[in-house]
Structure to design on (115 residues):
């Protein structure tokens, strides 16, 4: 099992969510977050300085079986891509154990119905 976490543009979130749904990934969590990338700039409007270094993003997190990792990554890549700086990041980490509280199922079976 793998945990996939992605940080994407707020404007691309609904497209990413739909793309993940089409890839049969229906269980996920997300948070609206602010972040700072490598670009540094300021904006002065009518004599007032604004910090535009922090950007609104959506942080998406979900756990999938190993067989669904590549299609999940590809769904995010395709949906979140603009080709511009700031498209986001995807992180994949190993999950050692998963337990469904209601049934006590362990491993892959705890994520979805039995294979």
């Amino acid at each position: 099992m793998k945990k996939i976490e992605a940080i994407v543009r707020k404007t691309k979130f609904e497209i990413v969510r739909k793309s993940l749904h089409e890839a049969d990934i229906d269980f996920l969590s997300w948070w609206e977050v602010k972040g700072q990338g490598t670009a540094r700039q300021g904006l002065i409007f009518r004599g007032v300085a604004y910090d535009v270094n922090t950007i609104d993003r959506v942080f998406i997190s979900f756990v999938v079986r190993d067989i669904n990792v590549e299609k999940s990554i590809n769904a995010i890549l395709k949906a979140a891509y603009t080709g511009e700086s700031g498209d986001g990041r995807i992180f994949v980490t190993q999950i050692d154990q998963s337990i469904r509280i209601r049934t006590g199922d362990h491993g892959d079976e705890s994520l979805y119905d039995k294979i």
